[in-house]
Amino acid sequence: MTDKDPTQAGTVRLAIEREIFNGLLAPGDALEEGRLAGRFGVSRTPVREAITQLAQAGLVTKRAHKRAVVAALDPETLLELFEALSELEGAAAFLSTTRMSEAERSELLAIHEAAAKNLRLNGDPNEYADLGFAFHQRIVSGCHNKVLIETTEWLALRVLPYRRFQVVAPGRLQRNQSDHDDIISAIVARDAAEARRLMQRHTLEQGDALMRFIVLNKATHTDFHPAALGKEHPL
């Protein structure tokens, strides 16, 4: 599942996801299928699919015979997810260094350059987040190991909303791009061990930065919205 999912379920999922992070939906708020179906002009089926996807990502809690509700942030679980993902993405980067085709490597460079341009022009943080997701996705797909790709993508889906919004904290965009510069350099140099090390460190530091932001600032969902980009937080 990507942030450019064209399905009805994908559209509903993204809308709910954004409302969770901009504070319009708070932990404990119920997600009523009928109301959401009417609001988005769809049947209940894509709404149920969207809620299932959000539950898989840990943003929604859904119990049998009960309404789905917005889940509370669980810092410990989030940190464990990022820790596991860092190992998987590191392994993918190691394999991708020698397995990516020239076309795949060129596509990765194009994504990286587009992200750099976004930063130079002070572009939309959401667009940058999309490019960051694509950057990681291309490295993972470049490993050409189906089991590793499927496992990593499943875990990446669970942290996707947090990974997207953690980069809006002051300084994180620049640090994120610098990390990507280093990872690209290792891949171009065919240094698989260095690519693994850099990718592991990068993904783990994303989780660490998010945890510091939550703990130091007693962060709510509102703090993860792109509107928070102008705020000064001691990350």
Q: How would you describe the overall organization of this protein?
A:
By secondary structure, the chain is mainly alpha-helical. It has two domains: 8-70, Arc Repressor Mutant, subunit A (Orthogonal Bundle), CATH 1.10.10.10; 75-230, GntR ligand-binding domain-like (Four Helix Bundle (Hemerythrin (Met), subunit A), Up-down Bundle), CATH 1.20.120. Helix content is 68%, strand content 3%. It contains nine helices and three strands; from the N terminus they run H-E-H-H-E-E-H-H-H-H-H-H. The chain has a three-stranded antiparallel beta sheet. Helix 4 packs across helix 7 (146-166), helix 5 (102-120) packs antiparallel against helix 6 (125-141) and helix 8 runs antiparallel to helix 9 (192-217).
Termini separation comes to 30 Å
Helix count?
A: 9
Name the CATH homologous superfamily of the largest domain. GntR ligand-binding domain-like
Q: List the uncertain runs.
A: 224-235
β-sheet strand percentage: under 5%
**Overall 3D geometry?**
globular
**What number of domains?**
2
Total strand segments: 3
List the strand order in the largest sheet. 1-3-2
Give the integer mean of the pLDDT values: 84
Query: How much helicity do the residues have?
Result: 55-70%
Q: CATH top level of the largest domain?
A: Mainly Alpha
Radius of gyration over C-alpha positions, nearest whole angstrom: 18 Å
